[in-house]
Design brief:
CATH topology of the domain at 111-264: Alpha-Beta Plaits
Helix content: over 70%
CATH architecture of the domain at 111-264: 2-Layer Sandwich
Shape: flat
Strand order of the largest sheet: 2-3-5-1-4
Pfam families: DUF4349
Biased composition (Polar residues): 55-64
Signal peptide: 1-35
Number of helices: 8
Region (Disordered): 40-101
Number of strands: 5
Strand content: 5-15%
CATH class of the domain at 111-264: Alpha Beta
Radius of gyration: 52 Å
Structural class: alpha+beta
Transmembrane segments: 296-325
Order of helices and strands: HHEHEEHEHHEHH
Length: 347
C-alpha cells in the first residue's frame, strides 16, 4: 500500500510539473506577443507623429536639398578629380614609363612653339612670293599680313600658322631663302595646365550628371528651380574649360611664326652700288633735288599762310579802326599844341 501511494504521489507531482512547464511556456508566448503588439503600436504612433510633423520637416528639407545635393555632387567630383590626378601618367611619358609620341596619349607632353624671324632683303616682292610658296608646301597658312612703305624702306609682317610636325622644316626653308636672317625660338609647356583642365572637366561632368539625376527625381517646383540654376552654372564652367582645352590643343598642333621682311630704299649702300654717270647728269640730279626741296618749302609756306589767312583778316578788321582812332587823336593833339604855340608867340 505504501509503495502504491508513493507511486501515485510521484505521478501526480510529475503531472503537476508538466502542467507548470506548459503554463510557463504559454505565459512566455503571451508576453512576447504583448511586447510585439506594444512595439508595433509604438512604431505606429511614432510614424503618425512623424506624419504630423512632416510638413515642417519637408519644408526644411526642401530648403536644404539643393545645397545637400550640390555638396554631395561636389564631394564626389573632388574624389573623381583626385583619382584622375593619381591615375594620370607623368608628364612626357606613358603609364609604362616610356616616352609617348605626341597625339598617342591624352597626357603626352604638350608644348606651344613660337619663332620670331627677321629678314633684310634686296628684292621684297620676290622674297614675299618665295615665303608664300614655302608656307603652302609645309601645310601652313598666313593668319595675318601687314605691309607698309616709308621713305627709307618697304616692309611686311607675317603671322604664319604651321602644323607642329612641319615647324622645323619650314624654318629650314625660310633660312634657305635668306641665310642671314635673325631668328629666335621659344616654347611654352602647357602639359600641366592641360592635365589640370582634364581633371576639372571630369569632375564638372560628374557634378552635371548628378544634378541631372536629382532633377529627374525632384517633385517640387523649388527643387527643380534650384537644381536648374546649379546645373546652368556647372554647364557654363564645363564650356569654359572645353574652350580653353580646344585653344591649347590648337596652339599645340599648330606652331606660330612671326616673320618680318624689309627692303631698304635709297640707302647709302644702294646709292653707292649705282653708277655715278657723267657730271652733267649728276649736276642735273642735284639741281633737281634742290628744286624739289625748295618746292616743298614753298608749299609748306603757302599751306601755313592759307591756314593763318582767316586770323590775319580778323586782325586787319580789328586793327584798322584802332589805327584810324589813334591817328585822329594824334592829329587833334598836334593842332592843340600848334595853337598853344601860336598864342604864346603873340603874347
Amino acid at each position: 500500500m505504501k509503495e502504491e501511494r508513493s507511486r501515485s504521489g510521484n505521478g501526480f507531482r510529475v503531472a503537476i510539473n508538466r502542467r507548470g512547464a506548459r503554463l510557463l511556456l504559454a505565459s512566455a508566448l503571451i508576453a512576447s506577443a504583448l511586447a510585439g503588439c506594444s512595439s508595433a503600436s509604438s512604431d505606429k504612433s511614432a510614424s503618425e507623429a512623424a506624419k504630423s510633423g512632416a510638413p515642417t520637416a519637408n519644408s526644411a528639407q526642401h530648403e536644404s536639398v539643393s545645397a545637400g545635393a550640390a555638396d554631395q555632387a561636389g564631394g564626389e567630383a573632388q574624389n573623381a578629380a583626385a583619382a584622375s590626378s593619381q591615375n594620370a601618367p607623368p608628364q612626357g611619358g606613358s603609364f609604362t614609363g616610356q616616352t609617348a609620341a605626341e597625339g598617342d596619349d591624352a597626357y603626352s607632353r604638350k608644348i606651344i612653339y613660337r619663332a620670331n624671324l627677321s629678314m633684310q632683303v634686296e628684292n621684297y616682292a620676290d622674297t614675299e612670293t618665295r615665303v608664300q610658296e614655302a608656307v603652302k608646301r609645309s601645310g601652313g597658312y598666313v593668319l595675318q599680313f601687314n605691309e607698309s612703305t616709308s621713305a627709307s624702306e618697304k616692309s611686311g609682317t607675317f603671322v604664319i600658322k604651321v602644323p607642329a610636325n612641319g615647324f622645323q622644316s619650314l624654318l629650314v626653308e625660310l633660312e634657305k631663302i635668306n641665310p642671314s636672317m635673325r631668328k629666335s625660338m621659344e616654347g611654352q609647356d602647357v602639359t600641366e595646365e592641360y592635365v589640370d583642365l582634364s581633371s576639372r572637366l571630369k569632375a564638372k561632368q560628374l557634378v552635371e550628371s548628378r544634378l541631372i539625376s536629382f532633377m529627374e527625381k525632384a517633385t517640387k517646383a523649388d527643387e527643380l528651380v534650384a537644381f536648374s540654376s546649379e546645373l546652368g552654372k556647372v554647364q557654363e564652367e564645363i564650356e569654359r574649360i572645353k574652350g580653353r582645352m580646344r585653344y591649347l590643343e590648337q596652339n599645340v598642333s599648330y606652331s606660330t611664326i612671326d616673320l618680318r621682311i624689309a627692303q631698304k630704299i635709297g640707302s647709302a649702300e644702294a646709292i653707292g652700288a649705282q653708277e655715278r654717270g657723267p657730271l652733267a647728269k649728276r649736276a642735273s640730279a642735284a639741281l633737281q633735288g634742290s628744286l624739289t626741296v625748295l618746292n616743298v618749302v614753298l608749299q609748306g609756306i603757302v599751306v601755313v599762310l592759307a591756314g593763318a589767312l582767316p586770323i590775319l583778316v580778323l586782325l586787319v578788321i580789328v586793327a584798322i579802326p584802332l589805327w584810324w582812332v589813334r591817328r585822329r587823336r594824334k592829329a587833334k593833339l598836334a593842332s592843340v599844341r600848334q595853337r598853344l604855340a601860336e598864342e604864346n608867340k603873340t603874347e
